[in-house]
Amino acid sequence: MPSVLIVDDLISIHEMLEAVIQPTGFSTAFATDGEKALARYKGEKFDMVLADIDMKPMDGITLLKHLKQYDPNSVTIIMTAYASTDSAVQALKFGAFDYLQKPFRVDELIATLRRGLEFRDIQAQRVLLSTGAGLRTDDIDGRLIGKSGAIKKLIQQVKKLATVRTPVLLVGENGTGKTSVAEILHGVTGAGQAQFVRIDCSLSSEQNFRDGLLGLNGEGGPWIREAKGGTLFLQHLQCLALPVQKELVSVLRTTAHGFRLVCATTEDLEKMVDSGAFNEELFYRVASLPLHMPALRDRKDDVPMLVKHFTMRATNPMLDPNLIEFTGDAMAVLSAYHWPGNLAELFQLVSKLASTTETRVITSEQLPLRLRDLNHWPKLADYLEGQERQYVDRVLHACRGDKAAAGKVLGVDASKLA
User: Fold this and answer.
1) Could you tell me if 80 and 172 lie in one domain?
2) Which residues form the domain of 308?
């Protein structure tokens, strides 16, 4: 059973959190300040730490720093009663997995804990990989779920990239799995005890980025040293300020050979170069091997397999996940939805449904309204070319065979629907 160390100076908070967390399959332990929490963490084994930011004598941020020093793979979620962005960014900057602003919703808390546990599992897998020969290229098929043409193409590209250490640029919308691919590339290298250093450029201030990546002398900071022999993963590269981009170029000239560089972006960096918003030399240094991540709406044939995969990863204290299934009408709705949040949105939804359902079968009525509202479904003209027939069938199914209603959803004359 996954364990959570709760750190807060109010006993009432301990009692409230215990009441809502334990029924979802987590065990809980408590500490009333940062010093006691650190001592308990060192003496026992916990999967995650859920800590308040405002405590004495050791506050949540200081505790976070000590935890990262003692256990770089520790997963800490910070709770804050302050609405300022500064406290949240400060927590993320020092390695917090996420933060929760009080008062938070129970479903938000549980979802965050589940994501933290998933991240912890990934960290543990890395340790296992580092003691062996690394992830085999054959194992990539099992890590990238799907059978569509888009995912098959992605798998083949990842296998090819796994055999080289040239910088890789992952391009795609948020939630398409860029982090997973970066971790796969790291695992395939069999990098021994080397680290996978993940930096989100959208969360780091210019000064923090300079200190961590560039270093005081411009020859590489602690992040560079940590990544030596392993992988440096820069997320949201487009968010770097131009002056920092230029400085990063000089650092990469002398340090990039010491680690595998993987960058990710949600923007077209080439267009940014043309408009003067991105450093041209940096672009060519990181984009020699671009890998485009398909959006989920472009690989909807994979939705049933992904739903099954995500369901197996969910935890339901009442039901065996092997017994949970979605009805045909529910799967039709899931397959037709446009998923603006991509894999991340689908995973969050399936995990929530699978972990909270009191019945073995999940129907379309249990899905959120935004998925069931046909007004949110795309018109046929906007649907992916080559899959129009399948989409028409899904809409007809959702409309219970009513061609007039289906024609309205699709934006076509009902008489044209065979």
Assistant:
1) no
2) 297-416
